[in-house]
Amino acid sequence: MPDIDQIHELIMEDRRILAKSIAEQLGISLEQVGSIIHKDLDMQKLSAKWAPKYLNTDQKRHGASRLSNFWIFFRHDPNDYLSRLVTMDETWLYHYNPEIK
Questions:
Q1: CA–CA dist 6, 83 (Å, integer)
Q2: pLDDT tens-digit profile of 32-89?
Q3: Burial label, 72 (beta-carbon count in 10 A; 0-12, 13-18, 19+)
Q4: Among 33, 30, 29, 31, which Cα is nearest to 6's?
Q5: Considering only CA atoms, which of 47, 53, 37 is closest in space to residue 16?
Q6: 31 SS3 class
């Protein structure tokens, strides 16, 4: 059976890579590649790119730590909470990237 890390590396190098291309490069069946991508790596194709279905453990941990910091900040002074938050303004720029649909 092919190494799951090999398939993960190929996907991380080029998120637009086709499962058929991975199968040809590693000399395994398309069904094996599909099974590894969907079951073991827990990824799916979104807008022609492979992406994780859910947040990984590090992303969840990072989000939880940010949320706990906000909660501490809010409990310190609930009335002044919103006025002390720093936000950024949205700026829309036109950018063309030929790799994106």
A1: 49
A2: 999 999 888 888 877 667 777 777 777 778 878 888 888 887 888 877 777 766 666 6
A3: exposed
A4: 33
A5: 47
A6: helix
Confidence (pTM): 0.49
Q: Give the closest residue to 101 by CA, choosing from 25, 16, 13, 10.
A: 16
Single-letter amino acid, residue 36: I
CA atoms of 52 and 33, how far apart (whole Å): 15
3-state DSSP helix/strand/coil percent for the chain, to nearest 5?
55, 10, 35
Residue 86 phi, psi dihedral angles, 5° rounding: -100, 125
- Residue 7, phi then psi, degrees to nearest 5: -65, -40
